[in-house]
Amino acid sequence: MSATDVRVNVQDQYVIIDNGILQLTLSNPDGIVMGVRYNGLDNLMEVLNKEDNRGYWDLVWNAPGASGAFDVIKGTNFRIILQSEELVEVSFTRTWAPSLQGKLVPLKIDKRFVVLRGSSGLYTYATFEHLQGWPDFDIDEIRVTFKLRKDKFHYMAISDTMQRVMPMPDDRLPGRCQQLAYPEAVLLTNPINPELKGEVDDKYQYSNENQDIRVHGWISLDPPIGFWQITPSDEFRTGGLMKQNQTSHVGPMTLAVSTITFLI
After folding, report:
1. Are residues 168 and 226 located together in one domain of the fold?
2. pLDDT digits over 52-82, tens only?
3. Which of 17, 45, 77, 222 lies at a 20 to 30 A Cα distance from 26?
């Protein structure tokens, strides 16, 4: 049976790319991943979250001397880069202007999403351009974040030796845990899965060295689905191969992180 051609349907608020295996729904013109349909499941993303809090690019930046600002990157313009039977590539861009000084990072950002014929995955990459004369700034981190359905994805795998059944996000709420030395670390006192009682949950304990971050993600047993973050290379990372970065953690969440510190 031959693979289905890739199709794209552009609507006022949505861009839907479908190859017969996977259906990707993006907001128009924001470029936020609102839905991923696969293997009979209407949406792998957390449907309880708002549509703009499911899958997105984000960054942390600041003007020199100012405090850091968290920015979920939302495009203002959409266009189709390439459309054929074999693939569809779309672009969501946002360009800084002087009226946005202090509000948005001074960059021209182009987020791209690609779906191939016969593929069960999606590709995403971005370019960041700082034009001459634009203000200087510090940028600390750029990430791609996916928040999956908590009613489906319970088993997390970071490596051959780091994989397990995970706590639920509800286990980190008051009444089910005890706050420890810093906000990310809690003692599970009354988890939904009683076998996890007495354990400490801390997203940083699942960090890994850049050189070892290749494939990580989550598994659903019903239906049987794996959601995997695949890192094609280390060219976007800084800090060296032994620099540690986050991977996946309770949410269920999976990340691709470039932790950087420089002044532009």
Report:
1. yes
2. 999 999 999 998 888 889 999 999 999 999 9
3. 222
Give CA–CA dist 203/62, Å, rounded: 24
- What does pTM read for this prediction? 0.91
Q: Which of 97, 203, 196 is nearest to 145 (CA)?
A: 203
**Shortest CA distance to 19 belongs to which of 94, 91, 117, 104?**
117
- In a shared domain, residues 140 and 169: no
Per-residue pLDDT reduced to its tens digit, 19-53: 999 999 999 999 999 999 998 899 999 999 999 99
Strand partners of residue 76: none
Query: Are both 17 and 110 inside the same structural domain?
Result: yes
Count structural domains, the chain.
2
Checking if the pLDDT of 260 tops 60, the result is no
96 in the same domain as 200: no
Q: Which pair of structure tokens corresponds to residue 30? A: 């924001």
- Which residue is associated with the tokens 């993303």? 45
Task: Summarize the confidence of residues 176-184 as an average pLDDT.
Answer: 94
137, amino acid identity:
F
pLDDT category, 213, cuts 50, 70, 90? confident
Let me know if residue 205 belongs to a domain: yes
Report how far residue 218's alpha carbon sits from residue 164's, in angstroms, rounded to the nearest whole number. 10
Cβ(143)–Cβ(60) below 8 Å: no
Do 153 and 227 contact (CB within 8 A), yes or no? yes
Residue closest to 82 by CA, chosen among 126, 109, 115, 37: 115
